[in-house]
Amino acid sequence: MADIEIQFDDTVDITDVVCPVTFVKAKVAIEELDDGQILKVHMNDGEPIKNVPRSLKDEGHQILKISENDDGTYDLFVKKVEE
Amino acid sequence: MAVDYATLKKGGFMRQKQKNHFSLRLRVVGGQVTAGQLAKISEVADKYGHGYVHLTSRQGVEIPFIRLEDIDEVKAALAEGNVSPGVCGPRVRTITACQGSETCPNGCIESEKLAEELDQRYFGKELPHKFKFGITGCQNNCLKAEENDLGIKGGLKVDWKKESCINCGLCAKVCREKAITITDGVIEIDREKCNYCGRCAFGCPTDSFDTIPGYIVSFGGLFGNHISKGEPIIPFIEDHDKLMKVCDATIGFFNEHANPGERFKFTIERVGRQELEKAVREAYNS
Ligand code: HEM
Ligand code: SF4
Ligand code: SF4
Ligand code: SF4
C-alpha cells in the first residue's frame, strides 16, 4: 500500500502519555467509533510503536497503514472491527 | 522404628536440622497448582506443619516441620486433595515451565502442556544423579532454560506472506537481531541472524507471516556449586516427536555414561561432547 491518503473519522494523540496508558487511550478512542470507521493514532517511536499496533490487532481491529513522520513520530490508521 | 532416610527422601521428605522433622516437598508440574490443591496444602500446613509453606527456586512447594510420626497421615491427607510428594536425590526432578503460549502474548510453544508430558514420561526416573528439565516459551527466557541439564526454549520459524503485507515496516523495526531487511517492499529474513523469537510475526499488524512453532534445546546446564550454561547441539526442532526422541536419547546417554553423583555437564566433559553429539544427532536425524 504505497502513499494513498487514508480518510479517517477521528484522531487521537497518544504522544503525551506513556505505556501502558498509550494503549488505554487508543482503546478508549476506538471504542467511541462505529464498526468500520477509521481512527488515526499519533504516537511516538519506541515502546508505543512496538506495542500499540499489536495490541489493537489482538483486540480484533484492522491496521490499514503505519506511516513515519519527519519528526520521528508515527501515524497509525486502524479500522474498527466490532466483535 | 528404624528410619530409612533414603526412602523418605525419595518420597520428598527432606530431613530438617530439627530432630524428627521433615520439610515435605510436593510434586508440582510446570509451576501450576490448582485452587483445590492449594486449599489442601494450606490445611495440611496448618494442621501438621507450622502454618506456612516454602516456595522453592524451581517452582516447588515444601511444607516444613512435618513430624516423623505424622508422615503416613500427611500423605493420606494430601492424596485426598490430589497432591503427591515430590522427589529429591538421583532422579528426574520437577519439570519447570513458564506459562507459555496458553496465556503469554510472547509465547511460541505450549510450555505447560509440554511440562505435563515430560512429567508423565520421566518424573522420578532413577538416574546416576539429579536431572533437571526446564521449559521456557520464548527468547525472553523467563524460565531460564539454560540453567537446566536439558533446557527447552520455544521459538517460531517465520516465513513472510507477501499478499497481505501492507509494507508498514514494523517487522524490521521490532526485530532485535536485525535479521529483516526490506527492499522495494520485499521482505528478506537472514536465517543466520534470526533467533526464532517470533517478534516480527507477533508484531505484524496484518498477520503476514506463516509460523511454525518449535524448540531450541540446550544441554548440560547447572546452577549450583558449579555454574555452567547449557549449550545447543542441534538446530531448531520443528517436530514434537523429534523433541521426544532427543530427550529420550539424552536421558539414555546420561544413564549409560554418568558416574554416580556426577552431573550431566561433567559426564559430557569426561566422556566427550562429540559422543553426546553423536547420540543426540542420531535421534534428531531418525
Ligand atoms: C501497554 C503497556 C505495556 C506493554 C505493551 C508492555 C509490554 C511489555 C513487553 C512486551 C515486555 C517484555 C519485554 C521483553 O521483550 O523483554 C514487558 C516487560 C516488562 N514490563 Fe511491560 N508493558 C506495558 C506496561 C508496563 C507497565 C505499566 C509496567 C510497570 C509499571 C511494566 C513493567 C514491565 C516489567 C518489569 C517487565 C520485565 C522487564 C524485564 O524483565 O526485562 N510494563 N512489557
Ligand atoms: S518465556 Fe516467553 S512465553 Fe514464557 S512467560 Fe516469558 S515471555 Fe511468556
Ligand atoms: S523471528 Fe525474531 S529474530 Fe527472526 S526475523 Fe522475526 S523478529 Fe527477527
Ligand atoms: S509488519 Fe507485517 S505488514 Fe508490516 S511490513 Fe512487516 S510483514 Fe508487512
UniProtKB/TrEMBL annotation, chain A:
Sorted UniProt keywords: Transferase
Annotated ranges, domain UPF0033: 11-80
Pfam families according to UniProt: TusA
SUPFAM superfamilies found in the cross-reference section: SirA-like
InterPro entries, per database record: TusA-like, TusA-like_sf
Keyword Plastid: no
Keyword Transferase: yes
Alphabetized GO MF terms: transferase activity
Family: Belongs to the sulfur carrier protein TusA family.
PANTHER family hit by this protein: SSL1707 PROTEIN (PTHR33279:SF19), SULFUR CARRIER PROTEIN YEDF-RELATED (PTHR33279)
Protein name in the entry: TusA-related sulfurtransferase
Organism this protein belongs to: Eubacterium oxidoreducens
